[in-house]
Design brief:
homodimer; 128 residues; mainly alpha; DNA-binding
Chain lengths: 128, 128
DNA sequence: CCTTGACTTTGAGCGCGCTCCAAGTTGTAG
DNA sequence: CTACAACTTGGAGCGCGCTCAAAGTCAAGG
């Protein structure tokens, strides 16, 4: 996380105005760091800034926002589950295509038939 | 995939100029569809347009680009593997936090101690 | 005292991937 | 014949998430 990003997150309300040293420089507490790490984790899994803002807001409100916050997390968790599914399908497809390319390359090396584009379609994904 | 996106992909060279009906409207062949499905699958797993362009270019060149194309796919596959890892970590973290929220909500319901922000840190991710 | 460098601020700029607008053409239904 | 819908084009616009530029302040080192 760059300094730019930290300031940006503060500007848009993802983190509360953070403590300062006597010279005005920002000093991040351990709590700040933990929170930033959580934010980072959510961003890394494609939670939109908007949703993180909503969560941060509720968190500031504190009392009585527990269920709303939980719902956000649950929603994001199912988002993540879907992402994993997509990624695993794509992973399988790529493995399939890579194997295909290798076959072709071997055929060339031993002087077999010409280089051909392997099937470019997504049967695996479609079929499964 | 919207019509806008299809035209965009054609503009930026992800697909070759596609066949037209007599009135000038685009007609996508089954091969086009298969290729588009593949592109869609790569985009859905966050392959940048740039890289898809490189792949499409090599594919047009045909002969002798097999290894280069395979490398692109292999690179993307490891990207995907990393994504999956991140997502699984986040999924675990969220499950942990959601359980925590539930605990808190129950304590409230039975008149236990006050609503408190559960630990917001990422120990799970950090620790594992 | 002066330079260097790390921070501060506000506000603008940018790269990505679409997404839409305006104006024009064509085919179909009433 | 007319109206409408569905496509065509080139080019502009947009939302997201940073990322950076310019100008200023302060602290330490030579």
């Amino acid at each position: 996380m760059t300094a730019h990003t930290l300031r940006y997150y503060e500007r848009v309300g993802l983190i509360q105005p953070v403590g300062r040293a006597r010279n005005g420089h920002r000093r991040y507490s351990e709590a700040d760091e933990a929170w930033l790490q959580f934010l980072h984790c959510m961003r890394a899994t494609h939670m939109p800034i908007r949703e993180m803002q909503r969560y941060a807001e509720l968190r500031e409100l504190g009392d009585g926002t527990s269920e709303a916050r939980r719902k956000i997390l649950e929603d994001h968790r199912s988002e993540i589950a879907e992402q994993i599914k997509r990624l695993e399908q794509a992973h399988a497809l790529l493995t399939h295509k890579i194997a295909n390319y290798k076959k072709i390359e071997n055929r060339i090396r031993i002087g077999g038939p010409k280089d051909m584009e392997p099937p470019v379609n997504c049967e695996i994904v479609v079929a499964s």
